[in-house]
Specification:
GO terms for molecular function: ATP binding; phosphomevalonate kinase activity. It is built from 11 helices and 12 strands. By secondary structure, the chain is of the alpha+beta class.
Length: 367
Amino acid sequence: MSEPWAIEVRAPGKLYVAGEYAVVETGFPAVLVAVDRYVTVQVKSSDDTGHITSDLNAGSWLEWYRRDTDMVIEPDEAPFSFVLAAMRIVEEAARELGESLRIFDLNITSELDDDSGRKFGLGSSAAVTVATIRALCELYDLDLSRLEQLKLALLASIEVQRSGSGGDVAASMFGGWIAYTAFDRAWAREQRAAGHSVVELLKTEWPGLSVNRVAPPADLRLLVGWTASPASTSRLVGGVQSRKTQGGMDYPQFLAESARCVTSLVSGLNDGDNEAVFAAIRRNRELLRQLGERTGITIETPKLRHLIETAEEHGGAAKTSGAGGGDCGIVLISNDADIDGLLASWERADIRVLNLYVHQPEGGVEQ
């Protein structure tokens, strides 16, 4: 009989509510919510060879072993780039804290895609990074706060991708509704290149980085529609970044307007002012629509536009979520609105409602 899994950690998916595209710039805000679809990571000790298995990427797997303290990976490590980056950063911290490195098996299961493997756009890369970080911190008995674990996850993430804000990582780490501002990725890479230890960076205040709780809307329902058309966030964000100074694009004005919009949304949520919340959602939708037009990037696809317009017809406030280009749209709508009618119109347009609920907050953001 195989040994049971000693550690099991799950991390939730996320949805962007407002602030997309601007949040990739240092210090600019976004609002996100963690949702109750999960990536689960299980860990148990192994002997000479460790194994990583997953139901992601068509059931991919790899073996690894140690040469001294180094990981030696076989075969191709590409499907597990975020997992391996998370493993390496936790083990770097563990060595600095005097822990002996171990060999272990790690298994990943995900609820963030459909039965055919198409992703819903709920942040599977962030969730698997967070779940791996937390599971290995438990394996090595590292006494780190949630904020310090977030920093580990962000350091892992920038080893794999250049353009992410880290908001999805923060939502997956802390749960609930959060307001997030992005850290300075260039600064973090410079600190690493200069030889600063991981533990030193965990104790340092990071330029731009902040996470704060936001009050959930008390009498509004969050609806999520999936267009069944997966989108590439890195491609879309990279496209905007490469064109942000071209043509008639006033990018600094977009950033300023986005920040004002997110600030208004946070105030509306915290004050229970639904009209302010609706106005901020609609304003952010318009800002993103204009950004797409001026950069030539398709953020609001025809199906997402239909999702939004039908939600507005039924009394809700709606927009794309995340980078757009497919994936999901979100709606905030009164509980006494004609929600059944809205969902019926989505069904006729082949828009699938995702039955998602908020993953409740975990850990204090100040810890």
